[in-house]
Amino acid sequence: MQGFLSGKRKPIQQKAGEPAIPVNQQRRLYAAAVVIVLCVAILLLIFENRGSALQRCEGVIMQPQRSDCLSTLAGIEKNASVCGLIGETQFHDSCIAGIAESTSNVTLCTQATALEARAGCVLNVSSYARDIKDCALVGAPYNSTCEYSIASISRFADVRDCALISNATMRSRCTYLHDFGSAAASKNASYCAALPDERNTSLLSAIFALNSSSSSQMMGFSLINATPQSYCYYRLAVETPDKGLCGLTSGMMSTLCNATFENVTPHGGMNETLCDSATSNSIKYLCEYGVLSALAISERNVSPCMQINSTLGAQYPYYCISALATKYGDASYCTYIGNSTIEQDCTISAEYAKASANTTAG
């Protein structure tokens, strides 16, 4: 018989019906316990009252957690020098960008190690101040992308921003988009003359993107070889309306533009014969868009706009309404537009037209 001083222990008896814990599960439980203990130790090290906050962060053993601690501390204290203690490039650059943006200090971006991170930092900070000159802090080729992006924030309204873009292709694109936007805003056809009268699909795409248009609309005009210049004249002719501008268009765009006015009868009716004989549905829908837009303006009635085939694109009825509102300087028409961006542009254009008319009358 063995006593309690025998030095031997009886094995733990497993109760009947109690499942045994597998060895691999025992190991996982042990590993989880170790992780929990380690995390508690790190938290105690960070939040213990001994030493400064910086010393506690530097005392964290695991590198990712140490970087997070330093980055958080740098953000709280707005101290970029703390970011310099972070070894990993990605965490360091993210730390620098965070402080630069929170303090609106674009020069801090130059402390980012990676060129891409520096460019992103400068763009984010400069987009608030909209100072295109800040992009000089970014090396090529990202400086041009930065400059173009800042110019796009104002929808290329200031041609002086375009002149500062280093890359010649981007500079030219910016200038063209400025000219198109100016033609639409001022109803001044001289801006259209500055656009290229040759097929340029990429520029045409940028023009449609500038006006929140769908790709299907752009493709429709591309099918009839619309040039940026002809499209500018055509759109201005419909929105003014001024049939005389059709004479400045070329190719199929000239046919489409003239058809827009020829199919609107003096009695307010519409002859769809020419539209029905179009060589493709895309051209037919474009033709109908022009006809219905001219009809809406001539009758001062939003209903024809609502009849525009939605297959062409949901925005086309809205463009028709916008043209109507601008023609008569009446922003109330804009409330029929279901796209907030186009509605806002419509309201601005209508109010501008109304103000211009009052100034002229005065």
Please describe the topology of this protein.
Layout: H1 23-47, H2 53-58, H3 63-77, H4 80-83, H5 89-103, H6 115-129, H7 142-153, H8 159-163, H9 168-186, H10 201-210, H11 215-223, H12 228-239, H13 252-262, H14 273-276, H15 281-299, H16 303-306, H17 315-328, H18 340-361
Helix pairs in contact: 3-5, 5-6, 6-7, 9-10, 10-11, 12-13, 13-15, 15-17, 17-18
Estimated structural class = mainly alpha
Principal-axis shape? elongated
First-last Cα distance: 121 Å
* Count of runs of 4 or more consecutive helical residues: 18
Rg over alpha carbons: 33 Å
- DSSP strand content: under 5%
Major sheet description: none
Strand element count: 0
Q: Give the low-pLDDT segments.
A: 1-20, 265-272
H/E element order:
HHHHHHHHHHHHHHHHHH
What does this structure look like?
This protein has a domain at 211-362. It is 61% helix and 0% strand. It has helices spanning 23-47, 53-58, 63-77, 80-83, 89-103, 115-129, 142-153, 159-163, 168-186, 201-210, 215-223, 228-239, 252-262, 273-276, 281-299, 303-306, 315-328, 340-361. Mean pLDDT is 79; it is low at 1-20 and 265-272.
